């Protein structure tokens, strides 16, 4: 496991996840951070730079040029190792699993050796101190990079990951994570677990807006990101990625909910 310690970061920080090859959302997130006076060094990504959307190479180039701290997501791990699937943790044969074959193949063809080498060097965890609070940033979990933790997952599931984080990096007050694509805050004993969501795909809530987290003066808040989703959808359509996630950028609803716990589905 690779750990990077950023040291003290007492000024505000943005934490965001899942650019997902969505260039327009990534541009909007960086513009928002700049408008807030937050430098790239304090704008941290929880991984999965490339995935569903239509501009993987351009999104990678933008992130790398900005010089942001980035935690490796499962997509980075898989692409760096030249593996043939995204490693997202979808159940075999599920709709999400079947749909992933199309977008992963497109991303795989677009990402070159230099980008894969950069991905291979990304850390599994980033740590920093903010206003005396010990913070860690991971992707899904340390036990499993593709672990889905939801707002209603059992306390024990979070506690298991927190124990691993502390065993590898020391005591922690706040954990920032991603992977599941839906932002939430959850208190697990003394530790605040924050899923920063994903900027590249809406959180299945019926609007095209996406999510990011802001850490300021020791407090974490979740915020909505508006961006040019029509242009992002056009990128997907031009790339031939028209199997459902392109429509999700506009409708705000995922093409399948089979990855979600039953209690979080629209039909529940």
TrEMBL record:
Signal peptide: none annotated. It comes from the Bacteria. Gene3D superfamilies: 3.60.21.10. It holds the Pfam family Metallophos_2. Coiled coil: none annotated. Residues 40-214 form the Calcineurin-like phosphoesterase domain. Belongs to the metallophosphoesterase superfamily. YfcE family. This is Diadenosine tetraphosphatase.
């Amino acid at each position: 496991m690779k750990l990077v310690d950023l040291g003290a970061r007492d000024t505000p920080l943005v934490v965001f996840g899942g650019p997902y090859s969505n260039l327009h959302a990534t541009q909007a997130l960086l513009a928002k951070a700049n408008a807030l006076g937050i430098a790239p060094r304090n704008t941290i990504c929880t991984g999965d730079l490339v995935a569903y959307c239509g501009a993987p190479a351009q999104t990678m180039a933008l992130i790398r040029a900005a010089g942001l701290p980035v935690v490796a997501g499962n997509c980075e791990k898989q692409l760096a190792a030249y593996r043939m699937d995204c490693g997202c943790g979808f159940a075999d044969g599920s709709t999400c699993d079947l749909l992933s074959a199309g977008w992963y193949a497109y991303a795989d063809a677009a990402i070159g050796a230099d980008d894969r080498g950069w991905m291979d060097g990304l850390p599994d965890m980033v740590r920093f101190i903010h206003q005396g609070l010990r913070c860690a940033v991971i992707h899904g979990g340390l036990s499993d990079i593709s672990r889905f933790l939801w707002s209603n997952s059992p306390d024990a599931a979070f506690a298991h990951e927190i124990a691993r984080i502390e065993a590898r990096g020391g005591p922690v007050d706040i954990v920032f994570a991603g992977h599941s694509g839906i932002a939430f805050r959850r208190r697990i004993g003394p530790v605040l677990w924050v899923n920063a969501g994903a900027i590249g795909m809406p959180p299945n809530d019926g609007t095209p807006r996406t999510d990011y987290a802001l850490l300021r003066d020791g407090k974490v808040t979740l915020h909505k990101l508006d961006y040019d989703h029509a242009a992002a959808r056009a990128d997907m359509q031009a790339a031939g990625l028209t199997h459902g996630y392109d429509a999700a950028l506009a409708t705000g609803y995922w093409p399948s909910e089979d990855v979600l716990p039953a209690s979080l589905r629209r039909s529940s």
